[in-house]
Amino acid sequence: SVAEESGLIFPLGEWVLKTACAQAKVWQDAGFPPFRMSVNLSGHHIRQSNFTDRIESILSETGIAPNTLEIELAENSIMGHVNDSIMALTDLKIRGVNLAIDDFGTGYSSLLYLKHFPIHRIKIAQEFVQDIPDDTEDMAIVEAIIGLACRLNLEVIAEGVETRKQFNY
C-alpha cells in the first residue's frame, strides 16, 4: 500500500515483471519444460493507459511468448474499477497473456462481474486451504469455488497446499 500511495508501484511492478520474464527466458533457454511464469501486479497497473503496451514491450524485450506469462491480480484491485479492468484484461487476453484472480474469496467478490472478466483461472486463497480437511466450513467454501470455476470453464489453483491430506482433498 505504501508503494501504491507513493506512486512507486509503477516502476516497482515493471521491474518485477521484467525480472520475472527475463528469468523465465533463462530457464526456457536452459531446456526446462514449458511453464507459466505468474506475476502479481497491482490493480493500479491495469488502469494505466499504456499498460497493455508495456506488457507487450516487456514480452518482446525478454523474448518470451505471451502464453507463458500469467498476470495475477487480487480481486479487490479489479473490482474497484470494473469497466476499466474488463477492457484492459480483455486486451491482454486477446494478446495471449494468461490472467488469474488471486486470493479469490477474500475481497469484494461479485459473482455478477466474475462472468464478465476475461480470466483463465482463479486462485483459492490460502486461508480456505490451510485447515482442510479438518474444517468443514472451509471445505464447503472450497467445494463451492471449485464448482463455480468448473461451471465457468476456469482453472482453479489452491494456494498454500502443504500437506498430503490437503493435496489429496
Describe the structure using short key phrases.
169 residues; alpha/beta; 5-stranded parallel sheet
Fold and architecture overview:
The protein has 169 residues and is an alpha/beta fold. It is 53% helix and 15% strand. The protein has a 5-stranded parallel beta sheet with strand order 1-2-3-4-5. Helix 2 packs parallel to helix 4. The radius of gyration is 17 Å and the shape is globular.
Q: Biggest sheet: strands, sense, closure? A: 5 strands, parallel
Distance between the termini: 35 Å
Radius of gyration computed on alpha carbons: 17 Å
The best one-word shape is globular
Helix/strand class: alpha/beta
Low-confidence stretches: none
The number of strands is 5
Order of helical and strand elements: HHEHHEHHEHEHHEH
Question: Could you provide a short overview of the structure?
Answer:
The protein contains ten helices and five strands. The protein is an alpha/beta fold. The protein has a five-stranded parallel β-sheet with strand order 1-2-3-4-5.
Topology:
Elements lengths: L1 H5 L2 H21 L7 E4 L2 H4 L4 H12 L6 E6 H5 L2 H13 L3 E7 L6 H4 L6 E4 L1 H4 L6 H16 L3 E4 L5 H5 L1
Parallel strand pairs: 1-2, 2-3, 3-4, 4-5
